[in-house]
Amino acid sequence: MGYKYELHTHNKIASRCGGFTPEELVTTFVDQGYTGIAVTDHFFNGNTAAPGKEFPWKYRVEKYCESYELVKKEGDKRGLDVFFGFEYTSPSFHSLDHHAGTDFLVFGIDKEWLIQNGGDVAEVSTSEYLNRCRKAGGTVIQAHPFRLAKEYMNHISLFPDCVDGVEVLNGNPNTLGIPNELAKAYAEKMGFFMTAGTDIHHNHTANLCVTELNRRVKDEFDLINALKEGKQKLYVTPNLKYVP
Questions:
Q1: Which segments of the chain have a pLDDT < 70?
Q2: Within the chain, how many helices (H) and strands (E) appear?
Q3: Which residue in 193, 196, 190 sits closest to 160, CA to CA?
Q4: How far apart are CA 207 and CA 30, in angstroms?
Q5: What are phi and psi of 168, to 5 degrees?
């Protein structure tokens, strides 16, 4: 028996580009037989819907984390396991040519750690921030590492000394095909564990990218341990909730 997980989601509470309410996000995956999902909304260097720099850092983090908390509450009602993560975007200090669109999924870091340690996210380098998370017990997965989207990025940036895993199957149209194939080859060459994630924002997404595990996991740390075992199956399946 396999257990289906979605490891890359966005909703409108914390992602400016998200279209789901928490209830809609949970329904999408409960109705398609998933065991669990990860809430990985855009963090403060990315396309976040959370409050801006004019507000205190603690308040900003608390409002950002409401996205996960609301999805978790709905998931608990409906028997869907919900895990906390965030999508960190490499800061663009200078221009389009400075790592624009380079994203990472971070797991194993909680709200209290972010309040105490994360307030300089816009000022420190990518390597410093990600390795700080890893030192605190977090795990970093580079999302869609070979995506190229002309409107906001014109080159690929890899951070092999800052990551533990690689998303090798991403459902965004800019990533399907060759970019995903390159991500898999990169992960295999470097010995990183591999994940799939739809990068879903709404149900205008025709296909889902599934990470299937051979056991039900208990929390974010158990999830990462299962991924490191390397027994996951990664595949694409139709989104039965698809709305053209």
A1: 92-100
A2: 6, 9
A3: 190
A4: 16
A5: -105, -5
Residue labelled with tokens 């340690």:
117
Strand-pair partners of 104? 88, 142
CA distance 179 to 189: 15
What is the Cα–Cα distance from 229 to 244, expressed in whole angstroms?
Answer: 37
Distance from C-alpha of 155 to C-alpha of 198, rounded to nearest angstrom: 22
Q: ∠ at Cα 130 (191, 133), nearest 5°?
A: 100
Yes or no: say if 124 and 93 are a contact pair by the CB < 8 Å rule.
Answer: no
Per-residue pLDDT tens digits for 133-184: 999 999 999 999 999 877 777 789 999 999 999 999 999 988 999 999 999 9
Write down the pTM of the prediction: 0.96
Do the beta carbons of residue 39 and residue 200 sit within 8 Å? no
